[in-house]
Every structure is written in C-alpha cells, then in structure tokens.
Amino acid sequence: MNRTVLNGIRVIELAGLAPVPHCGMVLADFGANVTVIEKENKGLIVCRLTGYGQTGPLAQEAGHDINYVSITGLLPTTSGHNCARPWPPVNLLADFAGGGLTAAFGIVAALLKREKNGGHGCIIDCSMSEGLSYLASFIRRYHDIEHLWTQPYAAFSGDCPIYRCFE
C-alpha cells in the first residue's frame, strides 16, 4: 500500500475511528483496505452501520428509515389508534435512534474497552433495523395492555390529554 496516498486521511489513524461505510468507501477510492488498516493499527475501532445487518437475506438491500420502521413492526404504532392510518415518521426512529445512537454508544464502549485492554481496537456491527427492534421492545411487550393503548384516552392511544400537543 502506498502510504503517501493516504496522507490526507491521517486523522482517522490518529483518532482510531473509521466510520464505515462512507469512510471505507473514501479509503477504498485511495486504494486502502479497511482490513489492511486494522492489521497495521491494532487500536483501530471500525463501526459498520447498515440497514439490515452484515449478513442475512436483506444484508445487501437498500433501505430508508421507513423501511426499517416497517420491518420491525413499529410503523402501525405511530398512528395511535388501530383504525387510523400509520404516518411515516421523520428519520428519527431508525436512522438516528436505532442506528446513530447504537453506533455512538458502541464507539464509546469500544473506546473505553481500548483504554482498559492495552490499546486493542475492535469492529462494531450496528444495524438500524436491529437497533430499532431493540428500542421497540417495550411497545411489543406491552402493546396488548388495553389501558395503555386501546381504551379511550389510553396513555399511548393518541387521545390522552397528557400525551398530546396543546392545540
């Protein structure tokens, strides 16, 4: 590998972080291979953030926040009432919460681990749909409790005064 080609990306080596896939794509454009960099810098922390995970039937599929929200089964809960049509949430659920936050916490945990294990980095694999599925576990677990969801003025039904926006 020609190291002079990578001089403009030296900050990644210094920080020990390589947010993949975008950084990996840029490094690949310069002839770098993330695997090679991992071998040369044992302290490197690589975070792979995908929509559906690295493996499985949807691993190579493209997607957007609404796809990940739908596949986790969370989309119908955004309507409030079972009879109302679901509304597509902004990209806060899967992109930011399911993906970004799980990746950020993974990186922070990896940085702490690297401090304690003698400087060894690791690979973090985050999936937006899997992260959102975890975040939605409360809804799935308690969705059949009527006083929370389906009764008139239920807390999460969409018509409970304390969980609504003032007009």
Report the CATH C-level class of the largest domain: Alpha Beta
End-to-end gap: 62 Å
Low-confidence runs: none
**Would you tell me which CATH topology of the largest domain applies?**
Rossmann fold
| Mean pLDDT score | 78
- Proper CATH architecture of the largest domain: 3-Layer(aba) Sandwich
Helicity level: 40-55%
Shape: elongated
Detailed description of the structure:
The chain is mainly alpha-helical. The chain folds into two domains: 1-40, no CATH class; 41-166, 3-Layer(aba) Sandwich (Rossmann fold), CATH 3.40.50. The chain has eight helices and three strands, in the order αβααβααβααα. The chain has helices spanning 10-15, 22-29, 34-40, 65-71, 92-116, 128-135, 137-142, 146-149; strands at 17-20, 45-50, 122-127. Pfam families: CoA_transf_3. InterPro entries: CoA-transferase_III, CoA-Trfase_fam_III, CoA-Trfase_III_dom_1_sf. Belongs to the CoA-transferase III family. One of its GO terms (cellular component) is mitochondrion.
Which labels suit this protein?
167 residues, mainly alpha, three-stranded parallel β-sheet, 10% strand, CoA-Trfase_fam_III, transferase, alpha-methylacyl-CoA racemase activity, CoA-transferase_III
Short description:
The protein is mostly helical. The chain is built from eight helices and three strands.
Write the layout of secondary structure elements.
Elements: H1 10-15, E1 17-20, H2 22-29, H3 34-40, E2 45-50, H4 65-71, H5 92-116, E3 122-127, H6 128-135, H7 137-142, H8 146-149
Parallel strand pairs: 1-2, 2-3
Protein name: III protein, CoA-transferase family
GO molecular function: alpha-methylacyl-CoA racemase activity; transferase activity
Organism: Teladorsagia circumcincta
